[in-house]
Design brief:
Blueprint lengths: L1 E9 L5 H18 L2 E7 L4 E8 L1 H12 L4 E11 L11 E4 L13 H5 L5 H4 L2 H13 L4
Parallel strand pairs: 2-5
Antiparallel strand pairs: 1-3, 1-4, 2-3
Length: 143
Amino acid sequence: MYEILYCSMGNRDMEEVDILSILNKAREKNKKLGVTGLLVHQKRTNEFLQILEGEKEVVLKLLETIRTDNRHKRLNLIHEKEIQERGFNSWSMAFANMESIDKSKLKGISDFLEKGYTHELATEDPSWAAQLMETFKNNLPPE
């Protein structure tokens, strides 16, 4: 198993219908590919944070497809590694927006709320992303 975590910025303001379209297509494709993960959107900055997990070749090929998607720009690969097991096992693509989570549970990593995902925080301290994803995972309802 392999996982990647990246952030990017939307090319235009994303409406709810845009996000739902992205999610529906991702869930359908990911199910066929055996990929699981989580997509986070921050409306204020129009930024995305996504974790993908699955077979290494499949995940890396999917990342290259995502890189060419014209709905976003400035894709920044934050983290990639071999994993023992999936963190989002039952989610073809879980979703959360930043407005949906209790910010007090973010335990000292709230700098990203001010700086944004794609800003210098991604390279300053990549561990914030892992903590953020763990917080979302622990607060997601069952699929």
